[in-house]
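Action item from last week, closing it out:
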Amino acid sequence: MIHSFLRRDWIGRIRLALTLFGLPYTVCTPGARPAISCSYSHNFRTSQTLGPISTSFCNLYTTGVQTMPSSSAPHVKSRCPQYPGSKINRFLVPDDKVGWSQNWPQYKPLSYTDPLVEKKPVWADPEIGSFSPKFNTVDGAVDRTSFEGSYKMEKQKPLNPRGRTGVTGRGLLGRWGPNHAADPIVTRWKVDAKGGKTLHSVSKRPVLQFVSIKRKDCGEWAVPGGMVDAGEQVSITLQREFSEEALNSLVITPSEKAKIRDRISKLFKSPGFQVYKGYVDDPRNTDNAWMETVAVNFHDDSGNSVSELPLQAGDDAGEVQWVDVDSSFPLYASHSHFLELVAKERKAHW
């Protein structure tokens, strides 16, 4: 009995240390919950939802391969030791203290809001006390509802629905509470010289390609995406973010850009596959501000819409290019999970 207790305590200390330093680990103990790697933003469970989604912003659908995040697993990236872009160290939060239901009088996190956010740009809220936002509802032009449902409040500030992060305030995020983003995943089939679908040499499945950008902040490849502006429909954000990334990469005439805009508009009016909607385990999250996103796949199946966009690889940060969908290709945050779901939906190679 004593040996078993000491072993559990020893394992728990190692798991906590590895989790907080963002290192992957595996501990083989009977009944133990699988470990979470800090290199991923979402943890998923299978959902059997099938059929159309009725929304006010987009013609979307889901299928049996849809997966949704597991709220039972504590967020990890949101607890990484140092807050990004700062010298602020988070208060260390072990797995069993993440939930707000756990009484923890010793919890004394630092408050941090980035100086840029404190300068009150148009996309950021003022400090609590200097204005009276209406949380858990659409507050004027700002949507303060969460995909996670109704979130709790403490001292007039919203509480992260996934629990403690080790820092309060807003950090790099503009809004108190949920900060909504949209991630458009634009795909096409990879074709050979004769126009036929290219099959992968091992899986024998057709290969998808998607439009990928190289992030300027960290140099990682990612799905293009951005924040939903106040009062903006998600469908507009999806098209705007993709258009900006794709068109800015091309050296073409204004008339040619206009033609491409028409193609992009046509593609984004087609039914999109909603890959994910919910909380994002993002290192920018705090106890009072967090990221949520909608990821939607728009597929040019016939190859006559955006497939001919001449996206080229380059040496500059912020480059854009068509990339093969493959499990071996490293991507930013949870984007590889999104691409895996798209590949399953399209019955393509992964």
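Closing note: Confidence is low (pLDDT under 50) at residues 1-58, 64-69, 313-317.
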